[in-house]
Structure formats: structure tokens, C-alpha cells
Design brief:
96 residues, mainly alpha, 80% helix, transcription coactivator activity, protein transport, transport, chromatin regulator, transcription
């Protein structure tokens, strides 16, 4: 996708309210499969190991993001990509 096309899709997602719906759907799916709890446990472990005052938000973010991205279940990725494709197809008159 070109930058212009991405901007157009993003604007349409925001205008339609679909962006928020997709975010909420993703949050629900990730919570229901235990993904969110796993990351919370990982964050708590890092804080416990280093001490609360010895971990910055940036360090916590840097530690968690690779695991967060790599452990999203494939089925959830497929569902979200499908929802996005359908939105683009029906709302933006773009056929990927």
C-alpha cells in the first residue's frame, strides 16, 4: 500500500468509528486467550527481579514488546487482518 492509500484507510477507520471497534475487539480477544495475563506476569517478574525503583517505563516497554508481538496467537492475527480487509473492501472501495 502506498503512503497516501494508508492515510486514506486510516482516516476512514477513524471517521467511521471502526478503529475503536477493532481495538476493543482485539483487546477482548487477547484477554480471553490469556495473552494479556502472560504479559502482566512477565512485567511483574521483571519488576520483582530488578526492584520497583530500578525499572523505567522505557525499559519495561523494550523488554515486553518483542514477546508481546511474537506471542499474539495466529488465529487472532488472521481474524483482525480479515476484519481490516473487509473494512477496506467495503468502506474504501479498495480491493486488496
Amino acid at each position: 500500500m502506498t503512503t497516501e492509500l494508508c492515510e486514506r484507510v486510516k482516516a476512514r477507520l477513524v471517521e467511521s468509528g471502526q478503529e475503536e471497534l477493532l481495538k476493543e475487539s482485539l483487546k477482548t480477544k487477547l484477554a480471553s486467550c490469556g495473552w494479556r495475563d502472560e504479559l502482566k506476569a512477565e512485567a511483574r517478574k521483571l519488576i520483582r527481579d530488578r526492584g520497583l525503583t530500578n525499572v523505567t517505563i522505557d525499559e519495561l516497554h523494550a523488554h515486553l514488546m518483542p514477546k508481546a508481538r511474537s506471542t499474539i496467537p495466529d488465529q487472532i492475527k488472521k481474524e483482525v487482518f480479515y476484519e481490516l480487509r473487509e473494512f477496506v473492501r467495503h468502506s474504501c472501495n479498495i480491493h486488496p
